[in-house]
Amino acid sequence: MQRGKTGIYTPTIAGGVACQAFVPVSLPPKPALEVSGKLQTSLNEALIALGRLDAVSTLLPDAKLFLYSYVRKEAVMSSQIEGTQSSLSDLMLYEMEGRPGVPIDDVQEVSCHVNALTLGVERIRQGHPISFRLLSEVHQVLMTSGRGTQRGPDEFRRNQVWIGGHRADEAAFVPPPANQIADCWAALEQFINDLPEPTAPVIKAALVHVQFETIHPFLDGNGRVGRLLIPLILVEAGILKEPLLYLSVFFKQYRDTYYHLLQQVRIVGDWEAWLLFFADAITATANQAVSTAQQLIQLLAADKLRLAQIGRLSGSATEILDALFAHPVANIATLNTATGLTAATIGKALDAMENQLGMVNEITGQRRNRVYAYQAYLDILNQGTT
Hints:
about 375 residues, mainly alpha, Fic-like fold, Arc Repressor Mutant, subunit A, 3-stranded antiparallel sheet, two-stranded antiparallel sheet, 5 strands
């Protein structure tokens, strides 16, 4: 439905240039959403896919093992949208105090993303509502290191910004002036917390994401926080027990459509077109996550059978493989901590797993402080990310 503009334009100055900033009206949309036909079907499919995703713990020996790597995959993809070059292996190397193959700032940003999501979920489980206080904590953690430390962590921006174009009067979009952010956020916070009336969680997550991106409350990190809001809303609503839904890969794959639909909401009020895209994103992403979990389980089972080929080392190698399933990039020290095996035994088993079975790869090329990757695991995890 084309409702017309979902906000008002107000004159402002950005970068010394006069321009028109967009101030969104409060949610929910008016007239009310038309949820029927194709859109209703897509929303139903999204809920079914989320149900399967929430049950993924029944497919895994330990859901937290999957969550460890899957959260990091999302952090990498969300940060790549913002221009970083870090890979999953770079991040895991950095977490072991190793040297990644990309600028350290890139990896620090991704690591902060992981910590921000972890904190947000922890606060929700403690009973905190999704509020400015919670998001300011998340934002502060997100901007703790890397390039964001001087970009106003945990506070609303104080300057007018614009998105796209080298001048504000040529920008693709100019968000609200700084002096109107607090009012815009207060209205959005009420909507998030079901005031004055509740909204279905999937629809809420979709609408809130757009509204947050439109308000653009922080000087930096808005895109990442806006994407983090989606799993946080679904966890708070009890739709997901763990924050396993990450749409960054889908948004990156269909980037032009994503930005076009956000702008269409602002210009013509077509919330339904955005909701259809969002529901399809959930279905595709959730189904891919379930498929990934199934493939990882099959991989582990098949590789454990292959370990019989290395004879007396197979028992130790099985323990190492279990440890790599939890942390697919590891060195001898971390494997010693995880398994209790001696460094010598771990070294012999890794040598057999690499040279006889091709199951692991040494990724540093060094003679000392060597690091091993369970590459088949990483390949499955990285499906569809390029």
